[in-house]
Write a structure and sequence with these properties.
The complex is a heterodimer of chains A (308) and B (182).
Chain A: H1 9-29, H2 33-40, E1 70-80, E2 94-104, E3 109-116, E4 121-129, E5 143-153, E6 170-181, E7 186-197, E8 208-219, E9 224-233, E10 246-254, E11 257-264, H3 271-276, E12 290-300
Antiparallel strand pairs in A: 1-2, 1-12, 2-3, 3-4, 4-5, 5-6, 6-7, 7-8, 8-9, 9-10, 10-11, 11-12
Chain B: H1 2-18, E1 23-36, E2 41-54, E3 59-65, E4 70-71, H2 74-84, E5 92-99, E6 108-120, E7 123-136, E8 139-149, E9 168-179
Antiparallel strand pairs in B: 1-2, 1-9, 2-3, 2-4, 3-5, 5-6, 6-7, 7-8, 8-9
């Protein structure tokens, strides 16, 4: 054996470095158990976090839909006072209620129907959320839900000059709801809207309306959030004055019961009417100010644990 | 001399590489929890729980994603993640512990205490869990039941719903392990 014992300092340094590196590599192989679990964790859980907890932000629909087999009983009320000096009404001078049932046919499609007491509107809607998979690469940066509403106005119309055949009493609303969970607490929604509504006071009134809605939610507690919504109509009706509906409120979810409280200038509760025919602007005078109260009760008709 | 040393270290190092602790892994472990009150029964299940056991060091680790729990009622899953466990901030629950007096050579059943720390919702809690460990061929099955208190994990329950959620939650688990290769 002919070992060269006179190694230069440089060589020694290289040798030491190699040894050190080997020892380090060896160390990294006896890795921590939690590191193994971290490495093995897959992100595919198919869970879509809620952007809005409720199917409505305040007055209008949110991008949220319910899972298959859920029935929601939805009761909405609006209370307002007449502009009288004195009134002897109990609680409020006027009130309107809308009762609706909404059933989730699939995880993305909901059908709902309801009727309102004050304006005699019967309405039905279909709401479809475009599926997005959580955790995979083809996730859209925002949530998209398509909304189609149909309504029939059953109220008697005294004015003989207004055509009120069945087709004149119907209205259609189409919306593309786009929402984004900006942060853990803050969600934002925009809603380009098209409304086809007849029953104009004059023949030259437009029957096609284009509107744009903006809504937001800010969570102030684990079960409580502040919400606001606004719709702007680009071509309002000309034969009478209309204003853009605005709402500000609080949403409170309590398990199977969800409550919404709001202040708004929109008396009507069906999309076509409150978007295009809100006759008062938002202020704190009577009868402009409406107090709104929505209650939703959720029934589950499907046990998710028995799915497999 | 240094070169001899280097060669020695190389050999020592490489043999050491082979002698990595033997580990087993469970990729589809099952964890379920129950809350029984007079108002409501809540049941949830997670079938994608990960767990590793280091057989030589008798160490065990468990990791689960909170949003993988499936509930009887679909809306509960949403509320569980959004309002109670805040799974966007604390996505995982992790357990790390030791199987006391674990003997890997025993085939069949042995009942052992697993002692360790369970971390969930930003809080850690020391747990001692009595578990049944079965060995069949190369496979190990670890299962058991234990109770844990909701208040230990800083979970905010609104007073109106306090009657719906039990103070003590019963947790059941079952993991089937197979050999793990790095």
């Amino acid at each position: 054996m002919n070992l060269d014992l006179n190694m230069s300092p440089m060589k020694i340094r290289i040798t030491v470095t190699i040894i050190m590196a080997l020892v380090l590599v060896n160390k990294s192989f006896s890795q921590d158990l939690l590191d193994i679990l971290e490495f093995e964790t897959s992100q595919e859980t198919q869970f879509i976090p809620a952007t809005f907890n409720m199917t409505r932000i305040a007055i209008g629909h949110s991008t949220e839909v319910r899972s298959k087999g859920i029935l929601e009983v939805f009761v909405a009320n609006r209370f307002w006072n007449l502009p009288l000096e004195r009134s002897q009404s109990f609680i409020a001078d006027r009130m309107s209620s809308r009762l609706a049932l909404e059933y989730a046919i699939s995880d993305n499609l909901t059908f709902g129907a309801g009727s309102t007491t004050f304006d005699g509107l019967f309405d039905a809607h279909l709401k479809y959320r475009i599926p997005t998979k959580s955790g995979s690469s083809n996730v859209l940066p925002f949530r998209v839900t398509l909304f189609q509403n149909f309504s029939y106005n059953s109220s008697p119309i005294a004015n003989q000059g207004i055509a009120d055949d069945f087709s004149d009493r119907t209205a259609f609303t189409s919306q593309i709801l786009l929402s984004k969970k900006v942060s853990k607490d803050f969600s934002l929604q925009i809603a380009p809207t098209y409304v086809n509504k007849k029953l104009g006071l004059q023949d030259n009134d437009s029957t096609n309306f284009f509107a744009f809605g903006v809504g937001g939610r800010y969570k102030i507690g684990s079960h409580l959030s502040i919400v606001s919504e606004y719709y702007h109509t680009f071509n309002p009706v000309e034969s009478f004055n209309t204003y853009n509906p605005f709402a500000i409120g609080a949403n409170w979810e309590l398990g199977d019961i969800m409550l919404q409280f709001m202040l708004t200038n929109a008396v009507n509760m069906v999309e076509d009417t409150f978007i295009t025919q809100t006759r008062n602007n938002f202020n704190f005078r009577n009868p402009n100010l409406n107090f709104g109260f929505n209650a939703t009760y959720v029934f589950h008709f499907k046990n998710k644990l028995k799915e497999k | 001399m240094i070169r001899v040393l280097a060669i020695f270290f190389l050999i020592a190092g490489s043999t050491n590489l082979v002698e990595v602790d033997e580990k087993v892994i469970a990729r589809q472990g099952k964890v379920s929890f129950f809350s029984y009150t007079s108002v409501e029964d809540i049941k949830a299940e997670n079938n994608q729980v990960l767990s590793v056991i280091d057989l030589d060091q008798k160490k065990i680790a468990v990791s689960m994603l909170m949003n993988a729990f499936i509930f009887e009622k679909a809306l509960m899953r949403e509320h569980f993640n959004e309002s109670y466990l805040e799974s966007d901030i604390y996505p995982k629950a992790v357990f790390e512990g030791e199987i006391i007096d674990f003997d890997r050579t025993i085939t069949g059943e042995q009942t052992r205490i697993i002692k360790g720390v369970f971390a969930m919702h930003g809080k850690s809690k020391e747990l001692e869990i009595k578990s049944k460990i079965e060995k069949k061929d190369n496979k190990y099955i670890v299962s058991g039941v234990f109770e844990t208190l909701v208040k230990d994990y800083d979970i905010n329950i609104p007073p109106l719903l306090a009657g719906n959620i039990a103070k003590s939650i019963s947790v059941e688990f079952r993991f089937e392990y197979e050999p793990y290769e790095d």
